[in-house]
Amino acid sequence: MKDLDTANFDNMTTAEFEEYLPELFENSGGSISKDPRFAKFFQSNPDCAALVRDLETIAEQARSLFEPIGAGSDPSDSVWSNIASKLKEESTDKEEN
Amino acid sequence: MQTKPNPGFFKRNAPIAGEAEAIDRAKNGDPDAFAKLYALHKRRVYTLCLRMLGNVSEAEDMTQEAFLHLFRKLGSFRGESAFSTWLHRLTVNLVLMHLRKKGLQLVSLEETINPSEEDAPKRDFGSRDTMLTGSVDRVTLERAVALLPPGYRMVFVLHDVEGFEHNEIATMLECSTGNSKSQLHKARLKLRELLRESQALAAAPEPAAQKVSLGQKVIAR
Questions:
Q1: Residue B146 burial by CB count (10 A; 0-12/13-18/19+): exposed, middle or buried?
Q2: Per the CB 3.0–4.6 Å rule, which of B22, B134, B164, B191 could disulfide with B168?
Q3: B216: in domain
């Protein structure tokens, strides 16, 4: 991982910038594209700006996947049937012992 | 540089109506209360298993295991973290143990440290028209996530979807936090590539798009 404290983003190549990206994302809370420290760099490197915006979009949209929606999000009914019968077996075993 | 909290962390901690009471009652052996806990959390637990395993049958087996494990361990839940956080961590650990038992090196990250040429994200700085067009809908993203190499998928799901921190992921996957950060970045790069391919195919003439759309790749798995 690259050290962000010593980085000079104004005079950086795109390859160098990419090496900082994992740490930047972790430390910026996912809003690198709006960070004024990188404005000059993004202006000179629009492809990097596009990459960062895309990665931010992906990370943002990923949060929406946490809450499952729609058909196919539920396990089949047999899962609960199996759980219920195993729990019954276990409680019967407990009572017998 | 200031560290902002991961928004996923708070999302996982959202209280669910009736949950606390159901936990207390289930701890005292009330079967209806346990059934309620199952009803409240089955979707999230199953979806988590499905994303990690990529297989419906295995995901259902692990969902079953997770809830059986929950029943046995519920007495040890002290409420120090949100119940859903605790349950998801329990589920992740069970799935990882299952994968290790199967002898799969999915969690060693070996594969993602040295991914095959086909699986590794391509570096495309300098190329034109590199940006995703518009927003990414959740169905398309879900399909693309399913196409990620297992090691990338694991870290992406745990961090970006489930909201675990890198230090937590590092502990679970037995790797360094730096490695977790690096794998997450590669996973996002790979997703971008897959999503761009999907968008290009959607814009292509009908026969070409039909052949290799993301949806068909997923169905073929």
A1: middle
A2: B164
A3: yes
Mean pLDDT of chain B: 81
What residues make up the domain containing B201? 136-220
Q: Is A66 on the interface with B (CB under 8 A)?
A: yes
Give B 81-110 residues with CB within 8 A of chain A.
none
| B201 and B140 within one domain | yes
Give domain status of residue B124, yes or no: no
Q: Is residue B154 part of a domain?
A: yes
Torsion of the alpha carbons at A31, B191, B5 and B38, rounded to the nearest 10:
140
Q: A28, B1: Cβ pair inside 8 Å? A: yes
**Partner residue facing A63 (CB), from B1, B7, B31:** B7
Cβ distance B59 to A75 less than 8 Å, yes or no, reads: yes
Which positions in chain A touch B11 (Cβ < 8 Å)?
A: 63, 66
Cα angle A51, A57, A62; round to 5: 130
How many structural domains does chain B have? Answer: 2
For residues B96 and A96, the model is more confident at B96
Amino acid symbol at B34: F
Within this chain, do residues B147 and B91 fall inside the same structural domain, yes or no? Answer: no
Give pLDDT, residue A43: 92
Residue of B nearest to A62 (CA): B161
What confidence tier does B54 reach under pLDDT thresholds 50, 70, 90?
Answer: confident
Reported as a single tens digit per residue, the pLDDT across A76-94 is: 999 999 999 999 888 777 6
Token pair 């200031």 is at which residue? B2
B49: domain CATH number is: 1.10.1740.10
Residue B81 lies in a domain: yes
What amino acid occupies position B47?
T
Neighbours of A95 (CB within 10 A): 7
Selecting from A15, A51, A83 the residue whose C-beta is nearest the C-beta of B67 gives A83
Residue A11: its pLDDT value, please? 79
